[in-house]
Amino acid sequence: METENDTLIPEFLIVGLSDNPELQPILFGLFLSMYLVTVLGNLLIILAVSSSSHLHTPMYFFLSNLSFIDICFISTTIPKMLVNMHSQRKGISYRECLTQVYFLATLVGMDNFLLTLMAYDRFVAICHPLHYTVIMSPWVCTLLVLIFWIIMFWVSLILILLMNELKFSRGTEIPHFFCELAQVIKVANSDIHVINVFMYVLTSLLGVIPMIGIIMSYSQIISSLLRMSSTVSKYKAFSTCGSHLCVVSLFYGSGLAVYFSSSVSHPSKRRMIASLMYTVISPMLNPFIYCLRNKDVKDALGELVNRVVSCPSVLRTLRQIL
């Protein structure tokens, strides 16, 4: 099969979720709705945290960053899929594919780091409350998030430079609904040993270590909660940790599903469904998890809605629209 340098390839072909033309309008409407709900929900979280003074704490600072990443996450994959569904095309240019891989790698890494920081924040708040304001100062939190962004930008850049050395056949099909890193590498026609080693090292450092950090943090938290005599203190601690544990379970559960689905004999459909969990379902559900399980966030959202509704300019705009 004739191969060419990837810079000369006009496009890849994304297989998508279904080839049935009758399902395309239904899938288009479904994913457009999910995209809008995800963006709106996470945007409300960001606005609620920024507008409410009593939410200006490390936990909610990390939550607003997580919401921003979720918006970027779903915006990296869904718009292109919707465009292809609407135009009934499967093509994605080489540069667009690499852009997806770059940003998805960066955002997955940031998700890992932020979930770990949120677990560490709860550990310090519950196990070392007297030192909390010193250890988790606003300056330290901002610096940590900035450092992790810089790390992921450079790590993802190295990954893309390695991918740029790969060769592909013209019209290569990717059995997915977006350019997932593992699937793009599998369809390459050149040696992928170096990039596979890099991916294994990357997964160990940026995936396994944060997961261990979360497990260790919560083991200490549970140990401290069991020693508490006050039922009210226990309930408050569990309520603040419950939302984070739900998000962690959803994120890592879907990630493990993608990993294990790659080892079965016919993994394409299962892998796509598992990938939907961490690219679409998880970013969409995160705002609901925090809103339903966190009274502070619900109160802040209520104040935000009341403030917007009572604003004269907003009312005038609504009258003009109606």
Write down how many β-strands occur, each being a DSSP E stretch of 2 or more residues: 5
**What structural category arises from helix and sheet content?**
mainly alpha
Give the CATH architecture: Up-down Bundle
Query: Radius of gyration in whole Å, from Cα?
Result: 22 Å
Description:
With 322 residues, this protein is mostly helical. It has one domain (8-321): Rhodopsin 7-helix transmembrane proteins (Rhopdopsin 7-helix transmembrane proteins). It is built from eleven helices and five strands; from the N terminus they run E-E-H-H-E-H-H-H-E-E-H-H-H-H-H-H. It has a three-stranded mixed beta sheet with strand order 3-2-5. 30% of the residues are buried. The chain is globular and about 65 Å long. Helices cover 76% and strands 4% of the residues.
Looking at this protein, list some descriptive labels.
single chain; 4% strand; Rhopdopsin 7-helix transmembrane proteins; 322 residues; mainly alpha; 11 helices; disordered N terminus; globular; 3-stranded mixed β-sheet; 76% helix
